[in-house]
Amino acid sequence: MVGQQALTKIEKIVVARYGPLVLPVPLNPMSARDYREYISKFTGTEGVTAEEHLKASYSYADNLYINEEDVWMRVFVQSLDGEARKWFRELPPRSIPDIEALDDVFLKHWGDKKDLHFYSTEFGNLQRENGEPLCDFNKRFNHLYSRIPYEVKPTPTSAMLTYANAFDSQFCLLLRERRCTSLVDMQYAAFEVESNIFAAERLEGEAESRRQGGKSSSSSDPKIDKLARMIELLASEVSRLEVEQYSEVAGAPCAFPLPSPDPYRGAQEQLQILQRNKDANEDQRVKTLFHNIVMEEE
After folding, report:
1. Of 10-19, 63-72, 143-152, which one has max mean pLDDT?
2. 73 with 129: CB under 8 angstroms?
3. Nearest to residue 270, comparing CAs of 255, 258, 280, 283?
4. Are residues 83 and 103 in the same domain?
5. Which of 47, 173, 270, 292 has the most CB atoms within 10 Å of its CB?
6. Which pTM was predicted?
7. CB-CB contact of 102 with 111 (8 Å)
8. Is the pLDDT of residue 90 over 80?
9. Which of 142, 167, 152 is nearest to 119 (CA)?
10. By residue range, what is the domain housing residue 198?
11. What pLDDT shows up at residue 281?
């Protein structure tokens, strides 16, 4: 009698917990492992979509080797929390007979309610963004492809064409030349194509640098040009001084102010003094010209 009353209480608890489900009697035993420790929760208010949660729940049940339908449905109900759990408890009692019905009622309420044509249009217009890493694009592509409802889901061949067309024309051509047999193989091949393109661009850049280096070495350096200009100006000034010296020797008037000869000194000594003064004046003019040129260049 006591056992019967205890069983009745357990049944009431089970009915309250899984009321909308049609469960067999007796129930199949749950796993002895603590399945609630790693199960993902769905509240309906976080970033995880209903489709993603349902897919993760199937994967989790498969890892636990759940083969009984009533066990799987109870595990799934335990993953609902917050507003989602409140919604489930408010469903009509014994209105969900199997897994298909549970998936259907869950997705109708919490799933994406976009028009079916929206998925095909969004998937067909998918493009790799500028600077987007290839691994990130593959994740985004696969995520969008997995969310497309079965009614409008593209075939694997169509998905491969969409994937190749998501790249620029050069990348698309090289990728399609690989003639991959599956979408997974094509995504692996995309990494090889990208590596080859990077290698080709690097080699082209190195060749261009060598060509630019050859041109630079053949052309004169700006500093050398300035030095050559200074030497040219100095040479021109020296030539002019030589002409003036020649003109003076030939009888032309001297361009340098010379001191008056001292009548008390000898003629040879007077000539040496005049020549030294003249050389000193010429050196001073050359130094002044060189200083002006340097200041101009600076």
Report:
1. 63-72
2. no
3. 258
4. yes
5. 270
6. 0.43
7. no
8. yes
9. 152
10. 116-218
11. 63
